[in-house]
Write the structure tokens for this entry.
Amino acid sequence: MKDMLVSQAKRLGVVTCRRNEPLKNVVRRMADEDISALVVVEADGSLAGIITRSDVVRAGLTSDSWPEEPVEAYMTANVITVSPDARLAEVMRILLDRHIHRVVVVRQDGGRQVPVAVVSDSDLVCEMADAVA
């Protein structure tokens, strides 16, 4: 399993939002789709950041007007990324070393990073379960 490529283990696709989108939209999508993060993209589809459940909870704690606050006020701009040909062992190491829960899988397109998937620690646990089933 550890030698599998991200592209072999992860269904491609990503749920995105824009940096100027209000947090109320993000919260609704997270709840409706039962996901823990959205990838923030620019108008051209390139990676701008990530907004997580923890970021939204922080917004709710620190701002009474959080529903109208823009995503960019709480998103993480410096996103840890991997390529689709990264091995799962590399992703596991990154998550543990950096104490994070997910990485964004990107492909390079003319100097831009275009998100194609997200791999989370939950995804890795599912892969581990499949490997021992």
User: Anything to note?
Assistant: The chain has one domain: 6-132.
